[in-house]
Structures are given as structure tokens and as C-alpha cells.
Design brief:
Layout: H1 2-11, H2 26-42, E1 45-47, E2 50-52, H3 54-71, H4 75-96, E3 103-112, H5 117-126, E4 131-139, E5 144-153, H6 159-168, E6 174-177
Antiparallel strand pairs: 1-2, 3-5, 3-6, 4-5
Length: about 180
């Protein structure tokens, strides 16, 4: 979308001199970008750690760029961008799923340092249907390390079940959910 809008601003108004007067016709494109950005921001909703509407917002923004291309007489570019947008939206929604609808939950887990412990904790979380979107390791006190994880789930996180799982594991010394 951004590349399309740059191309429209760059090449879409080459005939502006024929209109007469002294003005920068590409400012129209800049104004459309700013206005549509406000509309796009309006469809993004944040509830707790769940973010929804990012793909929709990007689609609205890119659709505005396509409209600008057609309005500037760049029909082939607009048509190619339309096909690309439709294909990407289908792929993102159907096959990838993006982060729309994923609730991200911060977790911290204190474990003793040992080879493979990070992979084991990640597998433990994956077994609960959580995807790991980030992991940072910090040296804790003594021989401990603290794993700061960001876990994502499309389903509502069950903190009680996760706490019970952590309490059953003899290597997990401390944990924090949320």
C-alpha cells in the first residue's frame, strides 16, 4: 500500500502542468493518506492484550491507494495492486490468520539453568494450546534464570489451568501470569 501511494504521488500527476496554475497536485495524495490513516486507526480495537482489526485497517489503507492510482489514470498499476491486495488478504485471513483475534499474555517463569530447559518450558506451553510470540532470558539469582515469554492464544487463556501446570512442574520455582 505504501509503495503504491509513493508511485501515485511520483508518477500520477505528471499532467498537472497542463491544468495551469502553480500547485503541487501530489499533495492530494498526501491528504488522502492522512485522512484514510485516521479511518484505519478507527477499526483497530485493543481490549486488554488482544488487538483486532490490523489486517482490516491495512486493507482499507491499501484500497485508498488503489483508488488514488485509478484516479490518477494509472489503471494497470491499480489493477495489479487490486489483484495483489485480494490475494494477500485471502492468504492472511485463510492460511496465516495473522495476529487478529490472538490474545497475547505476558508470562515470567523462573527455572534453574540447565540445557534444554527453555525448550521444555515452551513445549509445556504449546501443550496448552499457546503459541510463543517472544522469549527473553534474564539471569536470575544464583543458578536461576527468568524466562519472559509472550504467549498467544485465540481461545481465552485459562490462568488457573496454567498455574496448576506450573505448580506441578518441579523445575519451575516461580511464575507470573499476566
Amino acid at each position: 500500500g505504501a509503495a503504491l501511494m509513493v508511485e501515485v504521488s511520483r508518477y500520477g500527476f505528471t499532467d498537472a502542468a497542463a491544468w495551469g496554475g502553480s500547485f503541487d497536485a501530489s499533495r492530494v495524495a498526501a491528504s488522502v493518506v492522512a485522512g484514510i490513516s485516521f479511518l484505519g486507526a478507527g477499526v483497530i480495537f485493543v481490549r486488554g492484550s488482544a488487538i483486532r482489526g490490523l489486517t482490516t485497517s491495512a486493507g482499507i489503507w491499501t484500497t485508498a491507494g488503489i483508488g488514488m492510482a485509478f484516479g490518477a489514470g494509472m489503471y494497470a498499476v491499480g489493477a495489479m495492486a487490486t489483484v495483489l491486495l485480494i490475494v494477500l488478504q485471502l492468504v492472511l485471513h485463510r492460511f496465516v490468520g495473522g495476529l487478529d483475534g490472538v490474545t497475547l499474555t505476558p508470562l515470567s517463569v523462573t527455572v534453574p539453568y540447565s540445557p534444554g530447559v527453555i525448550s521444555r518450558v515452551k513445549e509445556l506451553l504449546r501443550g496448552q494450546g499457546l503459541e510463543i510470540h517472544g522469549c527473553r532470558v534474564v539471569k536470575g539469582s544464583g543458578e536461576d534464570m527468568v524466562l519472559y515469554l509472550t504467549a498467544g492464544s485465540r481461545e481465552a487463556l485459562q490462568p488457573e489451568a496454567l498455574a496448576a501446570l506450573f505448580q506441578e512442574d518441579p523445575e519451575i520455582r516461580e511464575y507470573s501470569i499476566g
